[in-house]
Amino acid sequence: MSLKWTDVLDIAIELEERHPDVDPRYLRFTDLHRWVCELEAFGDDPEHSNEKILEAIQMAWIDEHS
Question: Fewest Cβ atoms nearer than 10 Å: which of 1, 20, 27, 57?
């Protein structure tokens, strides 16, 4: 499965599994973007993200982290 930027929940789950000790409330978008692009299952164009997408991923990750 190749993750796209629109796969917000799946990305959040992957990030929670990969970085369980990170509190996503305090994560910078630059780090979040890099970590998403580093996911093995991620296969979208890094340039197709924006603040709205990153915020949605962050919010989903916060829900998963709780």
Answer: 1
Provide the residue ranges of all domains of the chain, joining segments of one domain with +: 8-65
Q: Which CATH number fits domain 8-65: 3.10.150.10, 1.10.10.600, 3.40.50.2300, 3.40.50.12100?
A: 1.10.10.600
> And the tokens for 49?
């993200």
Tokens 């973007």 sit on residue: 33
Q: What is the pLDDT of residues 34-51, one digit of tens each?
A: 999 999 999 999 999 999
Residue type, 36: V
pLDDT in tens, 8-34: 999 999 999 999 999 999 999 999 999
